[in-house]
Fold:
Amino acid sequence: MRRERCSSRWRWCWCGSAGAPRSSLRRSVRRLNLRPGDNPMTDLSDATLDEIRAALAPLIARNAAFDGWSVKAVDAAAAQAGVDSDVARLAVSGGAVDMIDAWFASIDRAMLAALPAEQLAAMKIRDKIAALVEARLDALAPDREALRRALAILAMPQNVARALKLGWRSADLMWRLAGDTATDYNHYSKRAILGGVYGATVTIFLDDESEGFADTRAFLARRIEGIMRFEKTKAKLIGQAQYRPSLSRFIGRLRYPVV
Structure:
């Protein structure tokens, strides 16, 4: 296999012993049959490996419910998509965590598709956060068993750092879509709190058998209400702190008195 430059993009081609292309990636791909919101690109002709990875991720998750996050799930997804299995394996060469990462990224895209910017703009902050989390859960709902297996893998000691990174990525995206522009410590505290709420909500979601996941939605609503109360209290305390005596300001004025 070799990589060649074509129309300002890299593509992978399979070559014979003489170096002539035996079959290009274009010939090994046909249109995918994905669920709405899985991936906007269903034609992988002349696709890059990153694009193949993104398109296969939901199919891999679907098969991971039965085969685990394994090469077997990748091969099954590749067969369903009409992608050469070697190309599919190359697209997720980082193993199970790489497959899970790609799937979570596809959930991000589904969330974005479900809640356009103009729809979010008309909502209050708490409603935005609730809607974004619920959109993620709706995208995850068909593959709860795959999610259960994914969380078990991410809970392994060697994967904890990557799991925290993925959780932070989701929380950061939700806050940015909600319109948060904080750059101070609020930036970090908001994302840490939402990450904790989202993780707890997913735990309830995995075993929720209520109609329309009503129990999960009720749990989420209570936790978001808690976040809003915390943010209001924090803002009030910060505002009061501005009027408290400051030892550093007092010392500074002794050295450089205001004229």
About this structure: Strands lie at 2-6, 9-15, 21-24. The longest strand covers residues 9-15. The first helix runs from residue 49 to 67. The CA atoms of residues 248 and 254 lie 10 Å apart.
